[in-house]
Amino acid sequence: MRRVTETQATAHRLDRPRRQRLATIGKLLVLAGLSTPTFSQTLSAESPFHQTSSPFAADGTSPEEPPAQPESQIPESLIPEHKAEPFDPNQMGGTPNASTDEALEKNADWQPLDAAAMSEMLRRSLDTIGVSPEQIGLSADQFLTDVRQEDSEPLTAWVRAIALQVDAVNEMMARGDDQLLELATRLDPSGPDYASIESMPPEMRAAVRTWIGRELVRGRFYDEALPIFAEVDPSISPDAAALLFYRGVCYHSLLKATEALADLRTLLQHKEEIPVRYARTAEMMIADIKPLKEDSLDEISRLMTDVTRRLDLGRADEPTQQREQEIIDKLTKLIDKIEKQQQQQQQQQQQQQSGEQGGTPKNGQSRPMEDSRIAGANGQGDVERKNASDKNGWGNLPPAERQESLQQISRDLPTHYREAIEAYFRKLATQQQ
User: Which has the closest alpha carbon to 311: 215, 178, 220?
Assistant: First the structure.
């Protein structure tokens, strides 16, 4: 009996450090799980747009994990200390830090919402500003009707549903019809509508700014549109696809290649879920602006197109003049570069010609002549005398042949050269007669 008691006591003492090692291993497992794609997907699934239950049970254990054993029992699967090996996070699906950052960044990105999800976001936003449940239901029903039955654009229907309950948004939409530029000015930080916009919930503010920016882009007012929705976060926007697309169009038109590529590539992360017109146009814009190089003839041509757009809109202000001066500076720089290249080519050709005329090559090198004399003058210098008479009757061609010759000679010349050539041949024919 005494031996049995001692054995149980010894097992209990041995069990304590093993439990501590188990706790340490458990912490390492949790840390390793943070770097796995599965855990990243779990974090993404708990975002506001994807309300799902936690994959873990309420008691903190996995559904497949067996019930915890009493502390007095030794786990059967415990590896003896002398057989233990260093823990490798990669065995649990761990990835390098760079891949971890990419996975977390991707899962923290925007998600496209369908009509039902946008309706729920609308309800939450209106509830935040204290709208009654009856009015919230009215706006939500109106939104769904516009999208599903009237085939309205989701962003327009969402903002219109807000306008039913918020007077400031209703006034902004009214100005958007015929006072669009004035609306952009009123949203300036010093404008009268700036405070009312900033006091709205984030989702509502993002939707209104995206709608106004979209209308300005459609009117080709890119300079006014960019400050309005440049800082809007796609992750909180009810229609992030519209935000990324129209902001990408704005950046593309203003030749901001880096920003345009960032927005358009982010948009194409959900290529299969966004409207087809967004995806196709985004791909074309990426292919168009990606090879753009600074100070190239292509960039100068695009700047000229931008100046044409500004002048079409009646803009002859300082920004337009700055664009024009930028075009002149880039053209001057490009011309200087081309002239410098031509000078270098001419110098190289002259050096090659002087090397060929300087003497007979020897061992791959040219050597100049020691004395100034005529090189290689061994012949008598007699040449055959050419008969420059008019025995062939030049100038007395038949009219048809003379007319054909005149056309061939003066084909690429201006009209007055043609007249001068005809007068010359008439005079030549008269003198020979």
Answer: 220
Contact 4, 64 (CB under 8 A): no
pLDDT in tens, 365-382: 555 555 555 555 555 656
What single DSSP character describes residue 385?
Answer: P
Q: What is the pTM of this model?
A: 0.58
269-304: per-residue pLDDT in tens?
A: 999 999 999 999 999 999 999 999 998 999 999 999
With a cut of 60, say whether residue 106 has pLDDT above it.
Answer: no
- Residues 281 and 229: their CA atoms lie apart, in Å, by 20
Domain regions of the chain by residue span: 2-49+72-98, 115-292, 302-349, 402-432
> Which residues fall within 8 angstroms of residue 92, CB to CB, at 6 or more apart?
29, 32, 33, 36
Instruction: Point out which residues pair with 365 in neighbouring strands.
Output: 362
Burial group, residue 297, by CB count within 10 angstroms (0-12, 13-18, 19+): exposed
Contact 264, 285 (CB under 8 A): yes
- CATH number assigned to the domain with residue range 115-292, chosen from the 4 options 1.25.40, 1.10.10, 3.30.70, 1.10.8: 1.25.40
State how far the Cα of 157 lies from the Cα of 242, in Å rounded to an integer.
13
Q: Quick check: 261 and 240 in contact, CB under 8 A?
A: no
Pairwise CA distance, residues 141 & 160, whole Å:
12
Phi and psi, residue 259, nearest 5°: -65, -40
Asked if pLDDT for residue 101 goes beyond 60, the answer is no
| Alpha-carbon gap, residue 250 to 213, rounded angstroms | 9
Task: Tell me which residue of 213, 296, 287, 299 sits closest to 250, measured CA to CA.
Answer: 213
Query: Under a CB-based contact definition with an 8 Å cutoff, are residues 359 and 367 in contact?
Result: yes
User: The tokens of 300 are what?
Assistant: 């100068």
Other C-beta atoms closer than 10 Å to the C-beta of 9 total: 10
